[in-house]
Amino acid sequence: MESRATSKQRRLWDRTAPDYDRGIAWFERNLLRDGREWLGARTRGSVLMVAVGTGRDLPFLHDDVTAVAGIDLSPPMLDQARARATELARSADLREGDAEHLSFADASFDTVTCVLSLCTIPRPEAALAEARRVLRPGGRLLLLDHIGSTWPPVRLGQWLVEAITVPSAGEHFTRRQLGRVRGLGFEIVESDRYGLGMIERVHAVKPA
């Protein structure tokens, strides 16, 4: 049964879907910058895109990707992702789903990605554990998200904003997943921060 927090997120993303691409444009241009390209360049084999949203990562998948699946809570977001996949002539199995309870068998994918979503997923530790479960040994986990800034004034601002966004929308600005990834036994291949220390990208591997 879906949790109340997850149901709240679904309603939020359903409302956000029509304006999502326009609303995120400034953030993408000024802070995220080449993050999606960085992540896409590291995708290989069969890929699961967790919280695929409107499919903004689809254009950047590596040529070595052989199959694409994606899940998202929001049907309106998925409609846009499917339209984007069609425009790109990219075959993709895009379906409604919950990151905390993936409907895929163990060891199904070579790569799992999650972009700008662990900040709002109610239980990120559960989502990461599920990503690990569906990855094959040696498979890649690729994360891109905003986190607490390394600049104290910016981080203070994030804390203040969270006082509003966490209760109203489940949006966390200071969450960081690197420790959770390590705690699940992943080997960290690459990780770095940029954009005022607010953006972190992680490339980790499930041990063989």
List its salient traits:
208 residues, alpha/beta, seven-stranded mixed β-sheet, 8 helices, 38% helix, 25% strand, globular
Task: Tell me about this structure.
- The protein is of the alpha/beta class and 208 residues long.
- The chain has eight helices and seven strands, in the order H-H-H-H-E-E-H-E-E-H-E-H-H-E-E.
- The protein has a seven-stranded mixed sheet.
- The N and C termini lie far apart (33 Å).
- The relative contact order is 0.15.
State the gist of this model.
One of its GO terms (molecular function) is methyltransferase activity. The chain is built from eight helices and seven strands; from the N terminus they run ααααββαββαβααββ.
SSE pattern: HHHHEEHEEHEHHEE
Number of helices: 8
Rg value:
16 Å
pLDDT under 50 segments (min length 5)?
none
Biggest sheet strand order reads 3-2-1-4-5-7-6
- For the termini, the CA-CA separation is 33 Å
Q: Profile the largest sheet.
A: 7 strands, mixed
On the 0-100 scale, what is the average pLDDT?
Answer: 97
Strands, total number = 7
Domain Methyltransferase type: 48-142
GO biological process, one term: methylation
Protein name: Class I SAM-dependent methyltransferase
Pfam family, one: Methyltransf_11
Could you give the topology of this structure?
Elements: H1 4-16, H2 20-23, H3 25-32, H4 35-41, E1 45-50, E2 65-72, H5 75-87, E3 93-96, E4 109-115, H6 124-134, E5 135-146, H7 152-169, H8 178-183, E6 187-194, E7 199-205
